[in-house]
Amino acid sequence: MAGTGSRGRVERRSAGELESEVLAALWATDRPLTPAEIQAGIGGGLAYNTVHTILKRLYDKGLVLRDADGRRGAYRPAKNAAQLTAEAMHQALDRGPDPIAALQQFVTGLSREEEQALRALLAEGDV
Fold it and tell me: What pLDDT sits at residue 1?
């Protein structure tokens, strides 16, 4: 959300932050939301047109879908949060010159709980 900077100025959120907030609002419900509903849920003085522009960007990126049946102008996420995070991790590994070294660095930064979960997933063999 936009915060107040020095001398009462409102700090602008980046497009990426706004996209994340819109996706979070969509992930928080099990039904499509209209731009007006998203605007009300996010708050922070965002204009309706700003929310609509962000939804168009997310739609163009394939991250949200327009609701085909039911409410006109409603949107829903194309992927859940875990799917989107996993996709971003794969893309990051694919961009680097040494994906194994990147994985090693990633794993060394895991919390104990995350490490145990990863070990359990790998032991299941379904990964």
Answer: 45
> What stretches in the chain show pLDDT beneath 50?
1-10
Q: How far apart are CA 85 and CA 44, in angstroms?
A: 25
Helices 81-95 and 99-108 pack at an angle, to 10 degrees, of 130
Are 74 and 34 in contact, with CB atoms under 8 Å apart? yes
What is the span of the domain harbouring residue 107?
81-124
Is 1 within the bounds of a domain?
Answer: no
- 54 and 93 fall within a common domain: no
Same domain, 10 and 47: yes
**Geometric angle at alpha carbon 109, from 107 and 114, rounded to 5°:** 70
Question: What separation in angstroms does the CA of 118 have from each of 44, 71, 107, 126?
Answer: 37, 40, 9, 12
Same domain, 59 and 22: yes
Name the pTM for this structure: 0.72
